[in-house]
Inverse folding.
């Protein structure tokens, strides 16, 4: 088999003197699938950017080493221009890759760039391969997350590259979305296309990888062949779990203890809601109740209405019909620096910040700073005068949880709090939830992350097309695992 | 269905706008506005009725403006508090007709064109550099995402007790920062993805101007309006 | 932001985002203008709103730091605003072009070597007088001389303030 890619990197990074990749070397032959696994922040994505020449040519970074991609050296500016023809790269977040108004345009864009003549039948064919030909001319805004992802794939491989690289292909997707993507990658593999998959959710790919590379902290820990992987599967998965990589099916722990409380914190009765400009109901007769200290987890597909439910309960929209009671309030009132009954934490921490420094953010909530200790987050003291936007993603999430806590609400609502987080950051979130609810507070989470069901849920609900039903935690787990075929 | 190229309508709208400013007399403005305003408003009423209504409300302000700054000439109306003179009326009429013309032309363009075709034709026919065409495409794509961002930001601001819409510089700054932070993060990855899709190599063959029957009609309409302007000089 | 003179896809994407953000701000600023006008007349209206209409230039330039970005940020923002569409319709393009060119001067003066808060503030300020001139030329907004001076001053000061706001926001957000 031909050697398609040969990589030997001594050091690579974005800023001089601060390498994010140290001592990595691997190779890929034609038709092979290489799986690169590691926890968040281990340098996996940077590795992709290094081998495609992006770090050196686009981001003013440095790469010390040798890279041979089918005879060219991507590190050199003239040869960097040849990379797009050979490689197709599918990045993590479709919202951060798509640029054109419609799928047809998006796929044409790649072809036009590379100098190919755009033949409409050819474009429609590639859209057909990912199941999008009926939406070829729909505005991209109307596509679902899974569809956008499939579009990214189509647009990145339409020119039939020799190597396709996937960066966290299942991030940001609900289980329905990512089962499609995994199937598609398997199909590509069967067609003999060389593939690199970078993931922290290793378990879906281990069975089909020819080579597995494990990277932590920028260092290459292991570089294993398929035979080794298959014969040492158990040990390997245990070791990877220890490193923060998702490998095995989480196990359902014993039933969580709920504080013996008869008091209901949240009661929602027969809630109907539609947006003023629409005729369709998004929420249809929702009934939900949670006791003090409970953790309710609502699961459902993207677009099923979970987020809308949280927002209506938080008082951002008036229900069209129905009753909401939080503690003893029927009416939520918000005020500057005032304690609030319910606090909604949006999916992106950036939405929550209003001030210029971490300190001001914390001071502007209702509780006094001195009431809290920051033992779990000692790093806070070092960044008090920094702008919240300069913190790392994990730190920003933490700050948003802190802010939620400092408004001292009876109930906190989370919208997809663990999207894209690896096992280690997930555990931190779980610890936060346990701490919060141990004081008699309530938490309601909308998610499609099955790990949260295992770790924190005391009550589970399934939201399907605006209709909510209460289920056991096990049922909710099956609901999420079933589409992925596990 | 008459299909006119968006580029044609864009050029039409731009030229009409310029004409609206060149025209100084009421007769000229009357012609321009009679052609463009009714058509535009008719086409645009369903989608953009808010804009149209706001525009009409804005006319009140213009009237007051005219009363304050151009109230000279023969008296026309005597309200105890103030005498309205024909100078004010004419000034108000002119500005209104001018604005109606511009609004009409804009509505025609917006309602009848497909923005995607517009940008495409800018690049292919007008020879707009690929860099600018790309930037525009990104800008338009970002618009709907930004709208979503803005809504979420407003929600959280309300929740934390702040104003939904900022009015002071520091308020604007606090609204701007999350928009920028999220937008820029998207921009980095989109930029990387675009380069990896070979953007640097892009060079579309210029197809030159393509003109259909309906385009010819629009251009003729434009030329007619230009010449009537000169006739009424 | 890269060191070479050529605009990379990264620069262009940043520019696109700035154009979109500016377009949205320009569209929303009409409300601010009308509120200001109703509350305090032409001078107050300009002080609180005009700077917002000049913000595309300092945003783009502080972010991308290359020649031409100030002009493009403002002009493309105006183009996006035209496509939304808003009040000014096609006239926005005329304003965007002229304001963008004026703002670009602020960076040209420093030979494109500095892209800090001072330059941003200056670029916002420089867009003020041409904007007021266009108002007079195109919409007949001609006031008595003393008022004209104040109105121009208001626009310029507003531009300076929001130019600084733009640069500081970019600084606070850049990782």
């Amino acid at each position: 088999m031909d050697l398609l890619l040969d990589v030997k990197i001594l050091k690579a990074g974005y800023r001089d003197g601060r390498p994010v990749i140290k001592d990595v070397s691997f190779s890929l032959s034609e038709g092979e699938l290489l799986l690169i696994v590691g926890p968040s922040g281990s340098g996996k994505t940077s590795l992709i950017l290094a081998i495609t020449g992006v770090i050196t040519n686009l981001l003013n970074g440095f790469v010390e080493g040798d890279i041979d991609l089918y005879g060219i050296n991507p590190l050199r500016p003239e040869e960097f221009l040849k990379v797009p023809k050979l490689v197709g790269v599918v990045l993590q977040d479709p919202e951060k890759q798509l640029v054109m108004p419609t799928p047809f345009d998006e796929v044409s864009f790649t072809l036009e760039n590379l100098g190919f003549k755009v033949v409409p039948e050819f474009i429609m064919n590639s859209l057909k391969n990912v199941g999008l030909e009926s939406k070829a001319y729909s505005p991209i805004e109307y596509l679902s997350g899974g569809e956008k992802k499939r579009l990214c794939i189509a647009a990145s491989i339409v020119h039939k590259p020799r190597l396709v690289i996937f960066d966290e292909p299942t991030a940001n997707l609900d289980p329905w979305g990512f089962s499609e993507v995994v199937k598609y990658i398997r199909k590509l593999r069967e067609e003999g296309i060389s593939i690199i998959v970078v993931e922290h959710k290793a378990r879906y790919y281990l069975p089909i990888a020819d080579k597995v590379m494990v990277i932590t902290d920028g260092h290459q820990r292991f570089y294993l062949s398929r035979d080794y992987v298959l014969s040492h599967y158990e040990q390997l998965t245990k070791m990877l779990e220890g490193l923060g990589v998702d490998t095995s099916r989480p196990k359902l722990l014993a039933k969580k203890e709920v504080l013996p409380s008869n008091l209901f914190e949240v009661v929602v009765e027969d809630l109907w809601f539609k947006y003023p400009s629409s005729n369709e109901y998004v929420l249809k007769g929702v009934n939900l109740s949670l006791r003090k200290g409970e953790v309710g987890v609502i699961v459902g597909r993207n677009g099923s209405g979970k987020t809308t439910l949280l927002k209506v309960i938080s008082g951002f929209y008036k229900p069209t019909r129905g009753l909401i009671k939080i503690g003893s309030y029927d009416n939520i009132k918000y005020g500057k620096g005032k304690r609030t009954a319910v606090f909604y934490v949006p999916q992106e921490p950036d939405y929550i910040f209003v001030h210029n420094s971490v300190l001001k953010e914390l001071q502007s909530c209702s509780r006094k700073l001195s009431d809290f200790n920051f033992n779990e987050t000692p790093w806070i003291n070092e960044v008090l005068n920094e702008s919240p936007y300069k913190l790392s993603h994990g730190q920003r999430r933490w700050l948003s949880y802190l802010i939620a806590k400092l408004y001292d609400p009876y109930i906190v609502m989370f919208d997809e709090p663990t999207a894209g987080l690896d096992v280690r950051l997930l555990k931190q979130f779980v610890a936060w939830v346990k701490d919060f609810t141990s004081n008699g507070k309530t938490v309601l989470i909308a998610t499609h992350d099955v790990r949260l069901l295992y770790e924190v849920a005391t009550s589970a609900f399934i939201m399907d097309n605006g209709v909510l039903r209460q289920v056991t935690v096990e049922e909710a787990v099956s609901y999420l695992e079933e589409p992925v075929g596990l | 269905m008459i299909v006119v190229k968006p580029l044609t309508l864009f050029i039409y709208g731009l030229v009409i706008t310029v004409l609206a400013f060149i025209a100084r007399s009421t007769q000229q403005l009357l012609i321009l506005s009679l052609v463009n305003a009714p058509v535009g408003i008719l086409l645009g009423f369903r989608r953009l009725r808010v804009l149209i209504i706001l525009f009409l409300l804005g006319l009140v302000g213009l009237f007051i403006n005219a009363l304050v700054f151009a109230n000279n000439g023969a008296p026309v109306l005597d309200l105890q508090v103030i005498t309205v003179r024909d100078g004010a009326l004419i000034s108000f009429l002119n500005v209104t007709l001018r604005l109606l013309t511009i609004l009409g032309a804009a509505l025609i363009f917006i309602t009848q064109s497909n923005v995607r075709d517009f940008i495409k034709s800018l690049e292919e026919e007008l020879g707009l550099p690929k860099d600018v065409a790309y930037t525009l495409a990104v800008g338009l794509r970002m618009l709907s995402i930004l709208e979503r961002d803005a809504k979420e930001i407003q929600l959280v601001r309300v929740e934390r007790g702040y104003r939904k819409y900022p009015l002071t510089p520091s308020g604007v700054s606090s609204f701007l920062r999350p928009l920028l932070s999220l937008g820029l993060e998207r921009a980095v990855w989109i930029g990387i993805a675009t380069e990896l899709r070979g953007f640097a190599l892009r060079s579309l063959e210029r197809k030159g101007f393509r003109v259909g029957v309906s385009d010819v009609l629009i251009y003729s309409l434009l030329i007619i309006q230009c010449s009537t302007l000169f006739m009424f000089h | 932001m890269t060191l070479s003179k050529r605009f990379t896809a990264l620069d262009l994407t940043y520019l696109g985002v700035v154009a979109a953000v500016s377009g949205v701000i320009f569209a929303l600023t009409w409300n601010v203008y009308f509120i200001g006008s109703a509350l305090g007349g032409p001078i107050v209206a300009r002080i609180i709103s005009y700077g917002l209409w000049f913000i595309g230039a300092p945003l783009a330039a502080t972010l991308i730091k290359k020649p031409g970005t100030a002009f493009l940020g403002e002009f493309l923002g105006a183009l996006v605003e035209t496509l939304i569409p808003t009040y000014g319709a096609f006239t926005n393009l005329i304003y965007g072009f002229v304001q963008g060119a004026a703002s670009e001067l602020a960076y040209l003066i420093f030979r494109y070597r500095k892209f800090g808060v001072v330059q941003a503030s200056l670029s916002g300020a420089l867009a003020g007088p041409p904007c007021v001139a266009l108002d007079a030329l195109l919409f007949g907004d001609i006031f008595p001389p003393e008022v004209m001076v104040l109105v121009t001053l208001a626009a310029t000061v507003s531009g300076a303030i929001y130019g600084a706001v733009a640069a500081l926001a970019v600084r606070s957000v850049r990782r």
